[in-house]
Amino acid sequence: xxxxxxxxxxxxxxxxxxxxxxxxxxxxxxxxxxxxxxxxxxxxxxxxxxxxxxxxxxxxxxxxxxxxxxxxxxxxxxxxxxxxxxxxxxxxxxxxxxxxxxxxxxxxxxxxxxxxxxxxxxxxxxxxxxxxxxxxxxxxxxxxxxxxxxxxxxxxxxxxxxxxxxxxxxxxxxxxxxxxxxxxxxxxxxxxxxxxxxxxxxxxxxxxxxxxxxxxxxxxxxxxxxxxxxxxxxxxxxxxxxxxxxxxxxxxxxxxxxxxxxxxxxxxxxxxxxxxxxxxxxxxxxxxxxxxxxxxxxxxx
Length: 301
Hints:
The chain contains 8 helices and 15 strands. By secondary structure, it is α+β, with helices and mostly antiparallel strands. The longest helix has 15 residues, at about 70-85.
């Protein structure tokens, strides 16, 4: 059944970038409750996945929409959450996420560097808004994408020193300095950098660091995927004392150039927010889908 659920998700949300292994791990979590809707031929055409107070996924095949299936799935999911003792429902991000929130073409706040993918519209966000959900962030949440055939910034490469800052791949011995940097800049990212596989010489995913003297002042995770030819960058950090010196822009540009040189067709970054559309836009990334970070207070019975 989990494979059916994955196919339902993938066929209806093809513009969401999340690798199959991660999605399967999330939907197979033992604490999930899965609510199904099947047609007369026993084909899965709608489902919701609930974990604690989060709806990780609510999806209905296009041909079965506007028949009340989505409303029923949502009502049952909310009741399961209420019975669990929770007062609020969160859509998207819980113990992990298939997507950060409700995919939409709706821009909740001003944005720049937007080039939406075919597919996202306001149908899903309107569905949740009509049922009492609101966007809870004081900014936009979005994914960005970049066709690397457009990448034309060839001036900076790994190993270069720019205005005294050297941009190079990190080794495991750099980890203490990396964690000090991320703790100073944005501690939520520190855990991602502690994956020792990122520092293996034979690994494809790497950590690009900006070093000034003996101090790591900026970090970026760069990950090519040779199978899909879709590379990613993310978890960009710069120590507060060194911001405003284009260190983040240089990290992003050099990391993106590496993805292009590795034969990636596209690059993307996910689950980011207002302000970073400007930063990543320097290298050529464009917003491809927004997310409604939807929540709703449950009515007490």
